Amino acid sequence: MKAWRFYGFKDLRLDDIPVPACGAGHVLVEPLCVQPSVTEAQLAMGIPTLAYDRVKHRLDTEAPIQLFGHEFCARIVEIGSGVTGYNLGDRVAARAKLPCGDCPLCRSERSDLCRKGPVIGFDQPGCFSEIALLPEIALVKVPDSISDSEAACLQSLSDSVAAVETAQIQIGDTVVIYGQGSMGLECLQIARLSGAGMVITIDVREEACEVSRELGADNALNANTCDVVETIRELTGSIGADVVFECAGGSPKQGLSGHSTLLLAINSVRSGGKIVGVSWFGQPIELPIDILRERSLRYVFPDISTRAHLAHTVRLVASGRVRLQPTIRHILQGIDAVPQAFEITANKGKYQAINPAQVMMRS
Ligand SMILES: [Zn+2]
Predict the structure, then answer these.
(1) pTM here?
(2) 140 with 93: CB under 8 angstroms?
(3) In angstroms, what CA-CA distances link 199 with 15, 172, 192, 223?
(4) Helix (H) or strand (E) run with residue 104 in it
(5) How many other β-carbons are positioned within 10 Å of the β-carbon of residue 45?
(6) 336 with 230, same domain?
(7) Residue 289 and residue 297: Cα distance in Å, rounded?
(8) 180: domain range?
């Protein structure tokens, strides 16, 4: 089969390798639609972010290796012994984090909270190949009402569901969301479903602000054309928002805000309010920590997303309560297009992309 393998950062090649054997508790799938996550695209380019050291170590010691490809929709083509929940032809997506099976959490049936197990695409091959081997325990069935393209977004969307749950929004809360990339737009829609009152979103790209309005933002502010903190104060009777999601931070080289949006978030939230840190900054940052102390601010980070979050995510999309289609701008055809998808996803600003670029693998 053909599979993309990494020989180093920025060096991926389409190799011919043997089809993996389908072991017990596993299925073989043919990937239909796969997208690199933003983290994967940055790592592919050698940019420091989440899991950089782990990936670098694997490249230094094991290359060439299959890497990435945990955001996908695939069809089951072979079923291993002991698999009971799936049939040939089922379309599936997956939760990337697998339980280790051995720690106290796993042994007490709380394996969803395990952080010791392997991660699909990082510790074992994902779906940038013609055939992939996946454990049944990771899978979720994709109903007919969800397209291949939408299904490839489910794993990322379930992280946004976990992030909004972490915020514990109260009915009527004013919510501000910095960044209207895919996670910002997802948090917008899920916050509205979770009781948010007024939702104010911020981006520097007019096209992202337009999509944000289409998906339900009451006020989508372009930070290039207004003073956002001043405007948020005006809109909230000068006290600030109850909950602020920070989804814009990261390397300015990739069109992200550095940590300037975190500083804006601190100035946008009411005293005693919550900031939910969704971004990965890729390096240490400096914070005016006494201001958080003085104003009793809660700076919290999203809980790990579980199989229950993924199952709920499927319901949200299947029922049309969360819309993904307006965020998908780049769909590429054929396995050869995978490097182009990494290039677009690592540089979303340059390509006016909102969601990662997707690859229809079998065209
Ligand atoms: Zn475990």
Answers:
(1) 0.93
(2) yes
(3) 47, 10, 8, 16
(4) helix 104-107
(5) 17
(6) no
(7) 10
(8) 157-300
Q: Which two tokens stand for residue 189?
A: 């829609």
Which residues make up the environment of ion ligand 1, defined by Cβ < 5 Å? 99-100, 103, 106, 114, 116
pLDDT in tens, 184-211: 999 999 999 999 999 999 999 999 999 9
The token pair at 338 is 């995978």
Tokens of 18: 């043997």
Q: Does residue 307 lie in a domain region?
A: no
Q: Letter for the amino acid at 91?
A: R
206 Cα to the center of ligand 1, angstroms: 44
Ligand 1 centre from 114 Cα, in Å?
Answer: 4
Listed residue (320, 348, 311) closest to 112, CA to CA: 311
Tell me the CA–centroid distance for residue 113 and ligand 1, in Å.
8
Which run of H or E residues covers position 268?
helix 260-268
Do 90 and 169 fall into the same domain? no
Residues 133 and 11 in one domain: yes
Question: From residue 127, how far is each of 35, 75, 101 by CA, in Å?
Answer: 9, 11, 23
Burial of 354 (0-12, 13-18, 19+ CB in 10 A): buried
User: DSSP label at 347?
Assistant: T
In sequence order, which residues have a C-beta less than 8 Å from that of residue 123 and are 6 or more positions away? none
228 CA distance to ligand 1 middle (Å): 43
Question: Is the same domain home to 133 and 169?
Answer: no
Tell me whether residue 316 is in a domain: no
Give the tens place of pLDDT for each residue, 139-172. Answer: 999 999 999 999 999 999 999 999 999 999 999 9
Residue 182 is assigned to a structural domain of this protein: yes
Residue with token string 């994967």: 40
- Structure confidence at residue 256 as a pLDDT band (50, 70, 90): confident
